[in-house]
């Protein structure tokens, strides 16, 4: 990404945050930027590893993750290992919100699965059950199969 593209991305993120009536602080912009460019949900500890070298402390990262989760720009998932993982929730693409996750029971890696791979995903409001918040698929990843 060249610096022009990065400026453009930052301007868009700033706008998203302001649309949620939050102040677009550097910490919030950086949190969203890292989550947006991550290919899978990441934990608070992993995010702190990325942000602490940039001058943010862990408490700031955690507080901002919570603020952004509260307004729906970030979604939080727990896949049975008692670790909260966070991912960017694109308000222009709300359908991507509830997509299945693949969890490797050997190494604990998490992969987002595209919704289009599943023809019969239940809707989030399911009359027979209640409200669905997470779809989890478990197995062995490629690295662990060998
Ligand atoms: Zn694995
Ligand atoms: Zn995901």
Helices and strands, with pairings:
Elements: H1 3-19, H2 26-36, E1 42-43, H3 44-51, H4 58-70, E2 74-78, E3 84-88, E4 101-104, E5 110-112, E6 125-126, E7 130-131, E8 136-139, H5 142-145
Parallel strand pairs: 4-8
Antiparallel strand pairs: 1-3, 2-3, 4-5, 6-7
Bound molecules: zinc ion (2 copies).
Number of domains: 2
Share of helical residues: 25-40%
Strand content: 15-25%
Major pleated sheet: 3 strands, antiparallel
Q: Walk across the major sheet and give the strand order.
A: 1-3-2
Characterise the protein shown here.
By secondary structure, this protein is an alpha+beta fold. It folds into two domains: 89 residues, Winged helix-like DNA-binding domain superfamily/Winged helix DNA-binding domain (Arc Repressor Mutant, subunit A); 49 residues, Dna Ligase, domain 1. It is 36% helix and 18% strand. Strands 1-3-2 form a three-stranded antiparallel sheet. The protein has a three-stranded mixed sheet with strand order 5-4-8, with no helix packed on it. Strands 6-7 form a two-stranded antiparallel sheet. The model has no long low-confidence stretch (mean pLDDT 89). Bound molecules: zinc ion (ZN) (2 copies). The site of one zinc ion has 5 residues, from loops.
Descriptive terms for the model:
2 domains; three-stranded mixed β-sheet; binds zinc ion; three-stranded antiparallel β-sheet; Dna Ligase, domain 1; 146 residues; alpha+beta; 36% helix; Arc Repressor Mutant, subunit A
Summarize the structure.
The chain has 146 residues and is α+β, with helices and mostly antiparallel strands. It has 2 domains: 1-89, Winged helix-like DNA-binding domain superfamily/Winged helix DNA-binding domain (Arc Repressor Mutant, subunit A, Orthogonal Bundle), CATH 1.10.10.10; 98-146, Dna Ligase, domain 1 (2-Layer Sandwich), CATH 3.30.1490. Helix content is 36%, strand content 18%.
């Amino acid at each position: 990404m060249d610096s022009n593209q990065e400026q453009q991305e930052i301007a868009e993120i700033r706008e998203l945050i302001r649309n949620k009536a939050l102040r677009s602080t550097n910490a919030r912009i950086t949190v969203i930027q890292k989550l947006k460019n991550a290919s899978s949900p990441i934990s608070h500890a992993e995010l702190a590893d990325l942000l602490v070298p940039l001058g943010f402390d862990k408490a700031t990262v955690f507080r901002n993750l919570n603020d952004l989760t509260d307004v729906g720009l970030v979604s939080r998932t727990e896949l049975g290992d008692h670790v909260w993982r966070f991912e960017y929730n694109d308000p222009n693409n709300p359908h991507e919100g509830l997509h299945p996750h693949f969890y490797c029971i050997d190494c604990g890696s998490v992969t987002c699965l595209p919704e289009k791979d599943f023809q019969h995903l239940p809707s989030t409001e399911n009359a027979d059950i209640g409200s669905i918040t997470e779809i989890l698929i478990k197995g062995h990843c490629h690295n662990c199969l060998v």
